[in-house]
Design a protein that fits this description.
The complex is a heterodimer of chains A (275) and B (414). Helices cover 73% and strands 1% of the residues of chain A. Chain A contains 12 helices and 1 strand; from the N terminus they run βαααααααααααα. In chain A, helix 3 packs across helix 6 and helix 4 runs parallel beside helix 7. The model of chain A has no long low-confidence stretch (mean pLDDT 88). By secondary structure, chain B is α/β, with parallel strands linked by helices. Helix content of chain B is 23%, strand content 33%. Chain B contains 8 helices and 18 strands. In chain B, the strands form 4 sheets. In chain B, strands 5-6-7-3-8-9 form a 6-stranded mixed β-sheet, sandwiched between helices. In chain B, helix 6 links the parallel strand 6 and strand 7. The chains are: A mainly alpha (275), B alpha/beta (414). At the A-B interface, strand 1, helix 2 and helix 5 of A face helix 1, helix 2, strand 4 and helix 3 of B. Strand 1 of chain A pairs antiparallel with strand 4 of chain B.
Chain lengths: 275, 414
């Protein structure tokens, strides 16, 4: 039996071991949120499919049919789908993890556990919705008779990248939200804006055509661009990957994750006093 | 005894009180504006005051001890528990814990109203630090103790508040940690359930090797459960002793504003209370058998309670008085009604004095409250719950229990 020592400024020593020890609670909290998510709704989990599906249809209609934007040689709906699904995952993971600490204030002020469990389990809940919504992609590929290529095997990798991309800002925002409730208003704004700044409804190659290589790099100062480009590369066999832009965007994701963890760890000890 | 289970050295928790910005939710704008103002004026921040919720607290607890933590509101009891359960970190000092800690600062933490009873047992168990295996092993026991078998698959938002509390306490009562930290959780549910909880706590406490820290305002619970007691006041330790009874008594006496001098007569005219206008208690006093005012009695001494009363106007229905005797912890010991012995009806107008003579109380030494009430056909007219405190002292050895009741023994050979 190891002795536990509590001292000012010392809580950090066995942090990661503690995180591992509390994995069951992590599972339970995620399980709770999944169970509760569609309670007392009529169509239940179908919401996880319906919302992105409608977004895809509108996006494909407006940008593909009306604006006639190019789509890298695949049906426009599939290209939009490959952008919308990771975007939905990112935005709901970000929104929910950002609210996870404030939403569980009663737990934080009454029970000890590594606080990182809360935003992490919120991301897992968003991931379950994401996994369900993959049905749309399968459906569209069957409808348009698009054969997947070997690149589809890389999809889990890009999904992992999406995890990292959502986790970093999620941790940062939720920790900030504990002290500055302004973030309750900032986050919906970020999400709303992000949908148009990020290449969700259009292809990044459009930017490249219009503004050249530099334009594309500037657009890639946005962590979700790498994820969406990766999804498109893996799903649509014809898209070319701009590796420079991908590297920049992914590096930013990792950087945000490190910053998020650092800030979260630094402020975590005062959560119970501030919340 | 080997190493202590818990050792607390020089523990302190400091909060900073800001006097200008009283907002609890600081906004980003405030912080930025504050930085700006500070940079611009080159003055220090607005007046800060340091407040020590706990200061230089040190104690040790051996394995298997049940420690009661007592003190008035704001004494630092809950802060101490929060530090021990790692919810908040200390500002100075150190704590060494030699075992798994489970804390129970609130009943039903993390219960989700949408989930069923069954699901909440699992969730709450996990939150309180039980493993999946432990929860499954004691699942049936938890359900049986809470008496909610029939509603296991109903969302708890449809539960009555009593069922909800029973289920929540039941999960907590089946925790199996080496160190259990409990805050005031017995103050839930109805009297019957409270008694059941106290019984459960007692059996948990008796199990060997369990070390418990227990915060309570109910001195009867502290006396019953605890093998030692820690008295905190304004963040500091006043007393830490194994003589629970003595410390509790001193705490209760110190808790009242008169430490030594117990007045034998209390003027009630200005005591704040809800009162009608028809009947107002003017004063209450105590007399010994020799008709001398006193607030200290022997267990077998006669006590006379004197009530002075003003009637404004005419009372139409017959007036009744009641006198309540309570322990210093607030437990009712006895009640007397005027009218139990008929023959002296109360007047219906004017000022008068009424005396109630109790031949002997046979109470265990300690401090007790006298409360008085006046009523008319069941409607209260005036009531003072804690009107006067008196003390029972004994020169003889006192035996354990609430009463020092006399008894005669007879032995016959069969």
């Amino acid at each position: 039996m190891s002795k536990l020592v509590i001292e000012a400024g010392r809580a950090s020593r066995q942090y990661w071991a503690d995180l591992w020890r509390y994995r069951e609670l992590f599972g339970f909290l995620a399980w709770r949120d999944i169970l509760v998510r569609y309670k007392q709704t009529v169509i239940g989990v179908a919401w996880a499919v319906l919302r992105p599906l409608l977004t895809i249809l509108i996006g494909a209609g407006v940008f593909g049919t009306l604006a006639q934007l190019p789509s890298d040689g695949v049906p426009y709906a599939i290209m939009v789908c490959a952008g919308t699904l990771p975007w939905y995952f990112f935005s709901s993971a970000l929104t929910e993890s950002a609210n996870s600490l404030v939403g569980n204030a009663n737990l934080i002020s009454k029970v000890y556990f590594p606080r990182m469990i809360l935003p992490a389990s919120a991301v897992v809940v968003a991931f379950v919705d994401f996994a369900i919504s993959m049905v749309i992609l399968a459906g569209l590929m069957v409808w348009y008779q698009v054969m997947p290529t070997w690149r589809l095997l890389a999809l889990p990798l890009f999904t992992a990248l999406a995890f990292v991309t959502a986790m970093g800002p999620g941790l940062l925002f939720t920790a900030l939200n504990v002290k500055y409730r302004d973030f309750r208003y900032i986050i919906p704004f970020v999400v709303q804006f992000g949908q148009f700044i990020s290449p969700v409804f259009y292809s990044t190659s459009v930017i490249e055509e219009r503004f050249g290589d530099w334009g594309r790099m500037i657009v890639s100062i946005n962590p979700i661009v790498g994820v969406i480009d990766g999804f498109r590369w893996a799903i649509c066999g014809t898209t070319e990957m701009h590796w420079g832009s991908f590297a920049l965007s992914s590096a930013l994701s990792l950087f945000l994750l490190v910053v998020g963890i650092k800030y979260f760890r630094a402020t975590e000890r005062t959560f119970a006093d501030v919340i | 005894m080997s190493d202590p289970m818990i050792s607390v050295e020089n523990l302190g928790k400091r909060y900073t009180l800001r006097h200008q910005a009283t907002k609890r939710y600081s906004t980003l704008r405030d912080s930025v504006a504050g930085l700006w103002a500070r940079a611009a004026s080159r003055q220090g921040p607005e007046s800060h005051e340091e407040f020590w919720a706990l200061h230089e607290v040190s104690f040790e607890m051996p394995r298997g001890e049940v420690l009661g933590i007592i003190g008035r509101n704001g004494a630092g009891k809950s802060t101490l528990l929060k530090i021990l359960s790692r919810i908040t970190e200390p500002s100075q000092g150190r704590v060494t814990l030699d075992g798994r800690v489970a804390s129970l600062l609130e009943v039903g933490t993390g219960f989700h109203p949408e989930l069923t009873g069954r699901e909440n047992i699992h969730l709450n168990g996990a939150i309180l630090g039980m493993t999946r295996k432990e929860i499954n092993a004691s699942f049936d026991e938890i359900v049986a103790f809470a008496e909610v078998e029939r509603f296991l698959d109903t969302p708890v938002k449809r539960y009555s508040s009593g069922m909800y509390v029973r289920l929540a306490f039941s999960v907590a009562a089946h925790l199996r940690p080496e160190i259990l930290v409990v805050d005031e959780v017995l103050a839930v549910g109805d009297a019957q359930f409270q008694a059941k909880c106290l019984g459960k706590m007692e059996s948990v406490a008796r199990q060997s090797g369990r070390t418990i820290l227990f915060v309570s305002h109910q001195m009867s619970a502290v006396r019953r459960l605890c093998s030692s007691v820690l008295w905190l006041d304004r963040g500091r330790v006043v007393e830490h002793s194994r003589d629970v009874e003595e410390t509790v008594q001193r705490y209760l006496r110190g808790g009242q504003d008169f430490a030594e001098q117990l007045p034998a007569r209390v003027d009630l005219q200005d005591t704040p209370r809800d009162k009608g206008s028809a009947c107002i208690f003017a004063a209450v006093s105590l007399e010994s058998a020799r008709h001398s005012a006193s607030a200290v009695f022997e267990p077998d001494e006669a006590v006379t309670i004197v009530i002075e009363c003003d009637l404004r106007g005419q009372i139409r229905d017959s007036l009744t008085f009641s006198i309540q005797l309570s322990s210093s912890g607030g437990e009712r010991v006895a009640t007397w009604f005027h009218g139990d012995n008929t023959g002296h009806p109360l007047p219906s107008s004017g000022s008068f004095v009424c005396r109630c003579v109790v031949p002997a109380l046979h109470l265990t030494p300690g401090d007790y409250w006298i409360g008085i009430g006046a009523g008319q056909r069941g409607d209260p007219l005036d009531k003072v719950n804690e009107a006067l405190m008196f003390r029972i002292e004994s020169r003889e050895t006192t035996r354990a229990g609430m009463l020092q009741a006399p008894a005669t023994w007879e032995v016959m050979s069969a």
